[in-house]
Design brief:
This protein has helices at residues 32-40, 54-63, 82-88, 127-134, 136-145, 147-158, 171-185, 235-241, 248-259, 266-296, 329-332, 357-365, 379-384, 460-474, 489-497, and strands spanning 8-14, 42-44, 47-48, 92-97, 115-117, 218-224, 303-309, 314-315, 321-322, 333-334, 336-339, 346-348, 352-353, 393-399, 416-422, 426-431, 437-441. By secondary structure, it is an alpha/beta fold.
Length: 501
Amino acid sequence: MTDTVASNVVLVTVDSLRADAISHVADDRRTPEIGQLAESGTVFENAFAHGNWTPFSFPSILGSRSVFTDSRDIGLPDSPVLAEALRDAGVRTGGFNASNGFLTTYWGYDRGFDAFESFIGGENPSRYERYLAAHPTVNAWLQVATSPFRRLASRVRHGKGSRPFTDTSRLLDVEGEAIDFIERATAGGTGEYEDDSAENGADRPESGAGDGDGDGGFFLWVHYMDAHTPYVPAPQHLREVSDGQFQTHRLVRAHIRTGLGLSVGERTLGDLQALYSGAIRQVDASVGRIRETLEEAGVADDTAFVVAGDHGEEFMEHGNLAHYPKLYDSLIHVPLIVSVPGIEGRHVETAVGLDTIPPTICDIFGVDPPDEWAGESLLPTVTGGTNPTEEPVVSVTVRGESVTQQPIPRRLDDGDLYASARTSDWTYIENTATGETELYHRASDADHQRDLAGTEDAPPDVIDRLASAVEDHVATLGGEAATDEQLEDAIATRLDALGYR
C-alpha cells in the first residue's frame, strides 16, 4: 500500500468512442462535460485499445491482460481483475453496463463488484420484449413517435428541465444505478450501504481494510452504449451538435439504408456521423449529472475520473461502418483522460495501451497492483510529469473468411489472427497466418490510406521493432479453450441486437 491520491475513482467507458469524437475543451458543444475533465486532467493523445471490439478490448481495461492470454476464448482472464484488487483493499465497488452482452456475468464481468448490473433482460422475457431487444431501432422509433406525450407527462411529474425521456441505450438505467451507488457509498459508512457481494460469489472484507481509516472510498465503473449502432440520441442532444433542425425522417432514413445494406453516400454518411455525435453528447450530459451527484454528496474534490473508449468506430474509411475485424486507427485509437483533483492537466504524446487503466486506478487508491498485470501505472505521468516508457502497443483481432462474416469470430481459432503494433508515429499490421503486412505513418496518414510496406519509404528499423513486438505478443497467446456452454437467452438476444450473432 502507498499513499492515496484520491479517495474515489469513477471509470467511464464508452462503447465505440473514437479518439476524434470528443473535445478536450469545455466550451466545445460536442462534449463540454468531458471537455472539463480533459482541461483539468491528463490527456493521452495516443491511447490505443488492444482489440477492435468489446470482447477483445475489455480484458485489458478491467484485467490488464490481453484477450487470449489465458484462454483461447473471450472473457476476463483468470488472474485478479481490477474490482477484486480494490475490494480486497476495502474499496466499495460498483459496476453498471448498459446492456452490452459481452460485459455480463456469463463472461465474468461481475467479478469483484459489490453492486453489479448489466441490464440484460430476465430469464423469461415476453415475445414483444425479445423483439424490441433484438430490434433496438424499432424501439427507438416508438419512443420518437410518442415523444410529445412522454415530454408532457415528464413535465407534469418533474417540471421543466427534466432528464431526457428516451432511453433506447439504457443510459438512464445505468445512470440511475450509478447515482444510487454514489449516494449509498457516501451516506455515512457501511451502515447505509447495501452490500451485494454475496450475489457475486465473494465475501467482502470490512470497509477500510488496507488503509486503516475506516473508509476505503469507492470505485464506480459505468459503461455507456449510446455511441454503438444504432445511434439514436434524444432530439435535444442531436440539436446541440447539429447545424439547424435535424428531422426525424433523416434519422430513420439513415438507419434503414444501412440496415438494408444499401449504398452509403455522402449524405447518409453525414447523417450517421451527426447521429453518432448526438449520441456522444447524450453520454456527455449523463457524465455531467454524475458529476453533479458527486458535488451534492460533497466528494467531488476527492474523486478522480478516468474516461476511455473501449474501441473506435469506422465511417467508411476502409469500406465499412461500425467495427468489423480491422486494426486501423479508426477502430484502435481511442480517448484516454485521467483527471485527478488538484493535479494540473497536461497532454501526453507517448503511445499507451488501455491495459494501463487498472494499475493506474490501483495507484490512485494506493493499492498494489497484482503481479500478473501487463500494464504499468500512468499515475507518475499524471502527478509528476514523467513520460511513460515508449513501448509499442499491440492490438489483435480475428478475421474469418470475410471481414463481415457472421457470426463475428470470438475465439482464437475462428479465423486468421491479425495483430498490430503502434507507436505515436507508426502503425504496423500483420496477418500472422499468412505473413502479409501493412505499415502506415500515423503522423501524416491518420486514416491509414497509404500502405508503406514494401516501399522505399518504410524504415527497416521501424519494421523490425514493430514486427518483433507482434511476434513476442503472439507467442504469449493461447491456453485451453473453454467448454461450449449455451448462451443465456437474454444475452443471446442482446448480441443479436448488436449484430454479433
